[in-house]
Amino acid sequence: MERNDAVMPMVSIVVAAIMWVLLLFIFAKDTHVPAVEISPELKASAAKAWPTLGKQVYTQTEPSCAGCHGANGESAGGGPALAGDEKILVDPNLVITNIRKGRGIMPAYPNLSDEEVLAVTNYIRNSWGNKAEVLGPEVLQAAVSNITPEVLRVRSRFVPEDIGLPQIFLATFVMLLLTYGIIGLYSVWAEGVELKPGIHKVRSTPMAVFAMVIALGSTVIFALLFAMQILRGLQGIASDPPVPPTVTLEGFYSAMAFLSLAAVLGIYKKYFMDGEALIEDASGEFPW
Ligand code: HEC
């Protein structure tokens, strides 16, 4: 008996693909980082302010930096010497992050304004024999976010808060259509275009065994890759500063593991398992 469901799966897959393209257009959105706005006054004053404001913050903020690092950056017991400290010259972010977030016994200073943080940073980098470039307000932004524009660019373009009910509905519909099509195509492949009622004997071939080994192997490999990627992601989240996990890779590996597993099951059903086919109603609406 000729199957009546050999065409429908193709139709539903094509329709799903078209809807998927539509969805991509609905979701498409630029996720580039907005330019940092820096007030011109802050920019102009930053260059001038550090010798006075910077020194004032260094000596007068409570608890005072000078109390731990010494009035002349020579260290006063509590903290390391800042005079001649190479690290603060090469890495201004270290200074800014230490002031904002604290480190070890050094307290955080959440009450200092941007201007004050910048001034004291320039002050300790340019006093007591230290010499470094005088920084502008841009570095404050750089220190706040460790997520580079590159990282943002490779992140998903689909921002969760953009997804509303209509998109969820459409996406679900696409998934259903795709699943319908794939199951239909699969059943035509596994059972044949002709429906032959009765017991189907296995007809395992060397090629089928080979394909089975490949599919099993890739299931294991992708599952391992997935587990490793998850571990790497967790390490990134726990590190300081945290690194966002590579969701794309995690998704890719898990999808490949599931696809390989599906291939294993499919090959098993077609070539290794005796099956019974029943006579189907040729006008059935759900053909498989
Ligand atoms: C209670 C004492 C204390 C106070 C107050 C303090 N610090 Fe510190 N600071 C430390 C200690 C201790 C470290 C070393 C922390 C570590 O590496 O674990 C440190 C580290 C630093 C570093 C990094 C030095 C390096 O080479 O790693 C900078 C820069 C710094 N402090 C600047 C400041 C500034 C600016 C202030 C005032 C706004 C300040 N500190 C106030 C104790 C203090």
Structure description:
With 288 residues, the chain is an all-alpha fold. Among the domains are: 115 residues, Orthogonal Bundle (Cytochrome Bc1 Complex, Chain D, domain 2), CATH 1.10.760.10; 79 residues. The chain has 11 helices and 2 strands. α5 packs across α6. The two termini are 14 Å apart. 15% of the residues are buried. The model has no long low-confidence stretch (mean pLDDT 80). Bound molecules: heme C (HEC). Heme C binds next to α3, α4, α5 and α6. Keywords: Heme, Iron, Membrane, Metal-binding, Transmembrane, Transmembrane helix. Pfam families: Cytochrome_CBB3. One of its GO terms (molecular function) is metal ion binding. This is Cytochrome c, mono-and diheme variants family. It comes from Deinococcus peraridilitoris (strain DSM 19664 / LMG 22246 / CIP 109416 / KR-200).
Concise description?
By secondary structure, the protein is mainly alpha-helical. It has helices at about 10-25, 40-60, 65-70, 85-90, 90-100, 115-125, 140-145, 150-155, 165-190, 205-240, 245-270; strands at about 200, 275. Among the domains are: about 40-155, Cytochrome c-like domain (Cytochrome Bc1 Complex, Chain D, domain 2, Orthogonal Bundle), CATH 1.10.760; about 200-275.
